[in-house]
Structure formats: structure tokens, C-alpha cells
Design a protein that fits this description.
- By secondary structure, the chain is mainly α.
- It has a domain of about 35 residues.
- About 30% of the residues lie in helices and about 5% in strands.
- It has two helices and two strands.
- Strands 1-2 form a two-stranded antiparallel ribbon.
- Helix 1 crosses helix 2.
- The radius of gyration is 22 Å and the shape is elongated.
- The two termini are about 30 Å apart.
């Protein structure tokens, strides 16, 4: 499911706030600690992935799927009741 929420960057360009900024074609050098590299190797072997890009894509997907829902964040709040009738409200 793709979302289409857009934010305006200061220069006036739009970016999708739910997608990484890069399209995957660019490369950037990175440095990891030995422990982080060992963890990436472990995930790579355990999930039978062929590259570190695949490992990062896998971990990103797992992270995105575990973001908690905001539903039920205020369980003590009662149902909404209008304080006064809004004469301009469209009836259902």
C-alpha cells in the first residue's frame, strides 16, 4: 500500500515522507563497527539474502511493519458528544 502524503521542502519541491529519499541506484560508502557487521552477516545468512542491500531492505521492511498503530492511544476518552448544535453541519 503506497501512501501519497507529501511535504514541501524549503526549495518548494515535494518529497514522499513514507519513502527513502534515494531511488536505490546511488551508492554511498558507509562504515560499521565489527559488531554491526557481524549482526548484518548473521541476518544475511539467517534470511538467505544475497547482498547487504537486501539485508537493509529486509530490516527496513520489518521495522516498518512493526510501527505501532495510533488507534486506541487514549482508551480513557469517552465517545465524542457535541456541546452545541452546529447549524452549518451537513446532515448524514
Amino acid at each position: 500500500m503506497q501512501t501519497t502524503k507529501m511535504k514541501k521542502k524549503p526549495e518548494g519541491r515535494s518529497i514522499d515522507v513514507h519513502k527513502p529519499a534515494h531511488n536505490g541506484d546511488t551508492r554511498a560508502p558507509v562504515q560499521f563497527s565489527k559488531l554491526a557487521k557481524d549482526k548484518l552477516d548473521h541476518v544475511k545468512q539467517a534470511e538467505n539474502l544475497d547482498s547487504y542491500n537486501a539485508v537493509i531492505d529486509h530490516l527496513y521492511g520489518v521495522w516498518k511493519s512493526t510501527i505501532p498503530s495510533a488507534a486506541g492511544m487514549f482508551p480513557g476518552v469517552g465517545p465524542f458528544e457535541r456541546e452545541e448544535e452546529d447549524l452549518n453541519r451537513v446532515p448524514y
